[in-house]
Amino acid sequence: MPRRRLLGQLFPSFVLPVSLAVVAVAWFAMHGFEALSLSSVRERLTAEARALADRVAASDEADAPVVESDRGIAGPTRFVALTTQGNVLFDSARRRSGSEGWLDRSEVRHALEGRSESALRTQSSPPQRVLSVAVPVERDGQVVGAVTAVESLAELDHAIEQFENRLVWAGIAAAGVAALCIFLVWRRWARPLEEMRRAAERFARGELGFRVMVPDSDELAGLAEALNQMSQQLQERISTIVRQNNEQKAVLSSMVEGVLAVDNQERVISLNKASGQLLGIDQTQAQGRSLQEVVRNADLRRFVSRALSCHEPIDDDVVLHGDHEGVLQARSAALHDAQGRGIGAVVVLNDVTDFRRLEHIRRDFVANVSHELKTPITSIKGFVETLLDGAISDPEDAQRFLQIIAKQADRLDAIIEDLLSLSKIEQGEESGDIELVTGRVKDVIDAAIHICQPKAEERQIRICAACEGDIVAKMNPALLEQALINLLDNALKYSEPGSEVQMLASQFFDEVTITVADRGCGITTEHLPRIFERFYRVDKGRSRKLGGTGLGLAIVKHIVQAHHGRVTVKSTPSLGSTFTIHLPRLAEHLNGQVTETAGK
User: Fold this and answer.
1) How far is the C-alpha of 48 from the C-alpha of 384, rounded, in Å?
2) What is the mean pLDDT of residues 72-83?
3) Which of the chain's termini has less CB crowding within 10 Å, N or C?
């Protein structure tokens, strides 16, 4: 429905009643004036007609005409005296043209019957209204005739017309005055109302500090004060809500756990930055959309459905696939409104991928270390029992069994030593107790080659090294040497006799690399991500046969991490493997190179 201005609503409601009142007053005034005027004329004519009737009745002969020379009744009024037979005794108009149908007139007939009567007629030539009054002429109690007075109402009609015109103009003036009054009233009311409307629009735009001027009208003043009070309360409440919202956003954004809130129709109410990162979705575009549109993970959608249907908190693991692989621990709680009705659920997501991986590694480590320790212990126990059962009496068998027991004991000792070394390196890595000094990389490489050279000569494998003497790094020489020895030992174990193992040290813009490459059997792709785990073996039988403990590469990884570096591997089956240690380059050398480059 279209809206109308207040003036358009007030104007008809005020002007129309005023106009109707003016019209009614004018109508009654005009009719009253006309009736009063006619009554006055009628009374005058009646009085004049009675005076003439008395004169006629005083005449000696009923049929004798009144003396025509009498000018007392001359004027615009026509007086006619009639007998009962309709004969004209007197006519002020000096006409004797028959009776002119006087007896056909109702007022004349009533007068001949003894009653005075009047009649209002319209004359055609000239067109005008006339008033006719007839009174009886009585003589000795007998009606002997009638006197009729006829007068034109042209002057009266002209006066009435002038009076009507004056009334019309007076009505128009009254309506104009009423319209002006309405307009002034509207201006008086509309101006503060317009200011209040503009104030309400400013409130809607958030300008709650604005205040409305209070008018002098009691009703409008109350409305203005109510608006000012409303704006003040809104400002206080909005400030409180904004502060609480900012605090909530700050808390949610600083949480590492993902928080996802949905309504009963599984539409996203809100989610924090962490949940967007965990689920791989855009935080700004997800709000208000269906969970099925935003999240493609079926496990999470099923968990949310369970959370909405269950009134108690639940928790479960959600496995992520695709670009964001991992495991999320999901916990849910119901959302309620002020009346306690359920309006949705909130889900807290915690990334437990590393925790689950560590649990898996721990289980594998326990199983592997148990298996690695159980094998030599079982062997030692078996041969000891064999010796106790009588084999010790045979010197040859006793000697062979004791050699096997000693070998298995050495293996146990090697495993324990590697475990202790690994534990010590990890503790030093966590506490930062490993001391790093600046040293030449070539010295560490030469020391590692010197230790591994006898084994290389035994297997007829040549070790080729290439390292410039000016390559330096911040390192712990003993630990870095141990890491290189482990890599060289693995390369020698899995290389064929007559092959070659290469060691190469290089320096780049931001790092120093030490590469150990062999031409052995290589490692398949599926084993590469796990070869640095404890006791992980690509070929378990061959590893044990070659005397490995399964901890060498794990020790290498932790030594490199203690040097704030990383270790990578590239391998192709049947072609060999390449292990590379990446160490950060010294800052002073890096700055020097940058300065030198800038100078060039």
Assistant:
1) 173
2) 72
3) N
In order of 189, 199, 221, 335, 483, the CA distances from 185 in angstroms are: 6, 22, 16, 55, 99
**Contacting residues for 510 by C-beta, under 8 A, at least 6 apart:** 584, 585, 590
d(CA 159, CA 445): 138
Choose between 78 and 61: higher pLDDT. 78
- CA 23 → CA 9, 170, 173, distances in Å? 22, 10, 12
Q: What is the pLDDT of residue 580?
A: 92
530 DSSP assignment: G
Mean pLDDT (whole number) for 311-323? 80
The token pair that represents 131 in the structure block: 């008033």
Distance CA 379, CA 411 (A): 11
Please state the φ and ψ torsions of residue 153, each to the nearest 5 degrees. -105, 20
Q: Vertex 184, ends 179 and 186: CA angle to 5°?
A: 90
In the DSSP assignment, the letter for residue 149 is: E
- Which three-class secondary structure state does DSSP give residue 30? helix
Q: Is the pLDDT of residue 54 over 50?
A: yes
Specify whether the CB–CB gap between 308 and 265 falls below 8 A.
no
* 328 in Cβ contact with 351 (< 8 Å): yes
Specify whether the CB–CB gap between 518 and 540 falls below 8 A.
no
Q: Which residue has the higher pLDDT, 524 or 364?
A: 524
Please provide the size of the chain in residues: 600
Separation between Cα atoms, residue 379 and residue 377, nearest integer Å = 5
Predicted pLDDT at 1: 52
Where helices occur in 389-476 by DSSP H, the ranges are 395-431, 441-458
- Spatial distance between the Cα atoms of 144 and 136, rounded to a whole number of angstroms: 8
Task: DSSP letter for 138, please.
Answer: E
Burial profile 409-420: b = 16 or more Cβ within 10 angstroms, e = fewer: eebbeebeebbe
> What is the sign of the dihedral through the CA atoms of 50, 51, 55 and 56?
negative
Please name the helix (run of DSSP H) or strand (run of DSSP E) that holds residue 583, with its range, or none.
Answer: strand 576-584
3-state secondary structure of 314: strand
Give how far Cα 191 sits from Cα of 10, 214, 381, Å: 15, 12, 108
Q: What is the pLDDT, as a whole number, of residue 265? A: 84
- Relative to beta strand 500-507, strand 462-466 is parallel
The one-character DSSP state at 65 is: P
> In whole angstroms, what is the distance from residue 411 CA to residue 406 CA?
9
Instruction: Name 296's Cβ contacts closer than 8 Å, sequence gap at least 6.
Output: 322
273-280 long-range contacts (CB < 8 A, ≥24 apart) are 274/349, 275/349, 278/320, 278/324, 278/326, 278/328, 278/349, 278/351, 279/320, 279/324, 279/349, 280/322, 280/323, 280/324
Amino acid at 537: R
On whether the pTM is more than 0.70, the answer is no
Instruction: Give the residue with greater pLDDT, 303 vs 190.
Output: 303
Residue range 359-417, pLDDT digits in tens: 777 776 676 667 666 767 877 888 788 777 777 777 877 787 788 788 778 777 776 77
